[in-house]
């Protein structure tokens, strides 16, 4: 991941430390290759079904990315919900399955 997206190195380390994720995906304009200088990085963090509710806070996602060197939208999903949403048109999970990039999986 660091060689493909070196600008995400600090953010990715923070994601690992904060969430202990099952998987991390990049999606949106950076994954499609059509990002412009004002585009944010869209990151989906996949957590176990038993992950504490506090990890799903949008404020925590903001804190994790703040000061990382990139502006990113960091959001989380439980693995079972993510898998269920793969079959739903226009869901984020479906978008990720079509154009997302796996940054890390256990």
From TrEMBL:
Polymerase nucleotidyl transferase domain boundaries: 13-78
A GO MF label: nucleotidyltransferase activity
Pfam families tied to this protein: NTP_transf_2
Highest taxon of the lineage: Bacteria
InterPro entries referenced in this protein's UniProt entry, alphabetically: NT_sf (IPR043519), Polymerase_NTP_transf_dom (IPR002934), Type_VII_TA_antitoxin (IPR052548)
Protein name: Polymerase nucleotidyl transferase domain-containing protein
Biological source species: Limoniibacter endophyticus
């Amino acid at each position: 991941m660091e060689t493909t997206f070196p600008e995400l190195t600090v953010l990715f380390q923070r994601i690992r430390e904060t969430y202990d994720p099952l998987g991390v995906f990049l999606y949106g304009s950076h994954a499609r290759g059509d990002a412009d200088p004002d585009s944010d990085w869209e990151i989906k963090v996949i957590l176990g079904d038993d992950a504490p509710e506090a990890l799903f806070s949008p404020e925590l996602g903001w804190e994790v990315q703040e000061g990382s060197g990139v502006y990113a939208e960091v959001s989380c999903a439980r693995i079972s919900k993510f898998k269920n949403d793969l079959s739903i048109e226009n869901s984020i999970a479906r978008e990720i399955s079509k154009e997302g990039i796996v940054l890390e999986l256990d």
